[in-house]
Amino acid sequence: MTTNKEKLTVKTAPAGAGENAIIRRISLVGIIGNIFLSAFKLFAGIAGSSGAMVSDAVHSLSDVFATFIAFLGVRLSKKEADKMHPYGHERFECVASLVLGLILVVTGFGIGKAGIEKIIAGNYEALAVPSVIALVAAIVSILSKEGMYWYTRHYAKILNSPAFMADAWHHRSDAFSSVGSLIGIAGAMLGFPVLDSAASVVICLFILKVAYDILKDALSKMLDTSCGESYDKTLADYISSQENVICIDSLHSRMFGNKTYIDLEIQVDGDLSLRDAHGIAERIHNNVEERFSDVKHITIHLNPSA
Fold it and tell me: CA–CA separation, 261 vs 226, rounded Å?
């Protein structure tokens, strides 16, 4: 997940058409890749008699919807501020992340429920032993989904997009679930058929952990949560180093989607003219917004020094 430290970067994201091209490319890779992968895993799960692989295929199919939701959330968040939304639309990304997290919760519980029911039912001797194609599908899935995780994560960091970062973790949760499938299928082939069902329960736990992290991050960014002491200290050190700043009286940060708002009070020489004092505030405002890529706006109040 995106951390506060990852926010403290100089602006590097492309803008305009270039940014939109990246958003479309990430979405197409996620949607098309998951459609083919889920179809292959579903076929392998049915043909290979593996309940764990069928569960894994359902998880991959949920990734198709997840990527589409991330795409919508990011595109809507890029809309310019308007009369009804003067602060912009960045929180659409948080809404998308919340939906992604809920999809993962439902998927995880569904997979876990199916696995537990098979374990409780017992009668493992009657269960079909998975074949090699199910094992191959698990390996292909691990490699593919891990690749999609790193690809999506790379561009999510460039775009500073929590929705695409959540989608990247959705890909990795699928890779984790495929590891569980691999262990379960291999164990069943070695004479322990219960492991195929047990793998579904393990997959469920991995998915729910990822869902929790995504939901927690999205809610934090929707509730004007502080960016944290480390973030505030880094920002305060930078502002204190600016010319004509005597000291900082107050500094508060709050997350607004993938952006940050800052409320700042600083002391300057009380004998300065209004024009000169305003010039200091404007220079600090511009320097902070240029230096820190996540800061959308900083409101500065000037206090005269004693």
Answer: 10
